[in-house]
């Protein structure tokens, strides 16, 4: 709701019995924030400091468009200190003025500043998941279908920013992620791997924030799986000091390119596997050293992508 519109008040009394004085202090204006009443303006005012020596019977409310010079009467029989003007054209610019009336006539008019018939915007629409990792979620959404009639403040399209909130679906508490996003996309980081989150997005203009748009539940994990097993490794070449082990890449990469491989070895009579490589193996072969002459060895290989290490060959 916008701050009240203030006007400067002055009045004087020339006779013992007179018309009432000008309205006291200010005319304030409220604008509806509900969609059904977005085309209305509510004016409110204080009673004049003097009634002119006779009881105030009613108030006259008038309006004029900013492009016109002549006021038209909205009501001449308002008995309260406020009045709601409905069926206003959305986005229109208007001035309003009010005066008090007693049996001797009407007092001096009190006028508002220029008022634009506006409201908070509709919420954004069609939130979509752009990218997903184990610790981050990237979202995008469409601009609201209606901006509330307010002036664009940021990127000269419709809105000046968005508010994004998130919550772990195991709780009912919403946390602020960002409150000044000038674009229709956002990346939320530092999420817990495996936790499910829901995101809530608001559109904001000068009159406030819209109702929210909720995303579906999103689990912080990669959209793809770990790769399948490589082919069964074979010893392509063997000497007393090393063995050259080779394999083929997996049939399935899990939806993400294979980053490399890991190889393990065990003696045929043992159940204990030992990792041979220190860093990730980039090729589909590996030279294994530390060979003991006459010993029989077995090998197995794992492929790794960004989602993790897959099953062994």
Automatic annotation (TrEMBL):
<dbReference type="GO" id="GO:0045214">
    <property type="term" value="P:sarcomere organization"/>
</dbReference>
<dbReference type="GO" id="GO:0008307">
    <property type="term" value="F:structural constituent of muscle"/>
</dbReference>
<feature type="domain" description="Fibronectin type-III">
    <location>
        <begin position="123"/>
        <end position="223"/>
    </location>
</feature>
<dbReference type="GO" id="GO:0031430">
    <property type="term" value="C:M band"/>
</dbReference>
<keyword id="KW-0677">Repeat</keyword>
<feature type="domain" description="Fibronectin type-III">
    <location>
        <begin position="26"/>
        <end position="120"/>
    </location>
</feature>
<dbReference type="InterPro" id="IPR013783">
    <property type="entry name" value="Ig-like_fold"/>
</dbReference>
<dbReference type="InterPro" id="IPR003961">
    <property type="entry name" value="FN3_dom"/>
</dbReference>
<dbReference type="InterPro" id="IPR036116">
    <property type="entry name" value="FN3_sf"/>
</dbReference>
<feature type="domain" description="Fibronectin type-III">
    <location>
        <begin position="229"/>
        <end position="313"/>
    </location>
</feature>
<dbReference type="Pfam" id="PF00041">
    <property type="entry name" value="fn3"/>
</dbReference>
<protein>
    <recommendedName>
        <fullName>Fibronectin type-III domain-containing protein</fullName>
    </recommendedName>
</protein>
<keyword id="KW-0393">Immunoglobulin domain</keyword>
<dbReference type="GO" id="GO:0048738">
    <property type="term" value="P:cardiac muscle tissue development"/>
</dbReference>
């Amino acid at each position: 709701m916008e701050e009240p519109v203030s006007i400067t008040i002055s009045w004087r009394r020339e006779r013992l019995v007179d018309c009432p004085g000008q309205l006291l202090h200010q005319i304030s204006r409220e604008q509806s924030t509900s969609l059904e009443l977005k085309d209305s303006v509510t004016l409110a005012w204080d009673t004049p400091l003097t009634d002119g020596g006779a009881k105030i019977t009613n108030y006259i409310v008038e309006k004029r468009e900013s492009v016109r010079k002549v006021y038209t009467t909205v009501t001449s029989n308002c008995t309260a200190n406020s009045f709601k003007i409905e069926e206003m054209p959305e986005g229109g610019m208007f001035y309003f003025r009010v005066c008090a009336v007693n049996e001797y006539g009407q007092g001096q008019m009190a006028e508002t500043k220029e008022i634009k018939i506006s409201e908070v915007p509709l919420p954004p629409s069609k939130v979509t998941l752009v990218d997903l990792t184990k610790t981050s979620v990237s979202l995008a959404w469409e601009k609201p279908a209606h901006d509330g009639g307010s002036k664009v403040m940021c990127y000269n399209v419709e809105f000046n920013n968005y508010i994004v909130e998130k919550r772990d679906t195991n709780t009912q508490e919403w946390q602020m992620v960002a409150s000044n996003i000038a674009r229709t996309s956002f990346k939320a980081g530092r999420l817990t791997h495996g936790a499910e989150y829901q995101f809530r997005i608001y559109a904001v203009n000068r009159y406030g924030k819209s109702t929210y748009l909720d995303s579906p539940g999103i689990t912080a994990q990669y959209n793809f799986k770990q790769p399948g097993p490589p082919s069964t490794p074979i010893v392509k070449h063997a000497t007393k000091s090393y063995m050259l082990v080779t394999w083929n890449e997996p049939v399935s990469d899990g939806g993400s390119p294979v980053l490399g491989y890991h190889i393990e070895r065990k003696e045929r009579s043992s159940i204990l596997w030992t990792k041979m490589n220190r860093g990730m193996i980039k090729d589909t072969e590996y030279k294994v050293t530390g060979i003991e002459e006459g010993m029989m060895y077995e090998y197995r290989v794992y492929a790794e992508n960004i989602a993790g290490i897959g099953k062994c060959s």
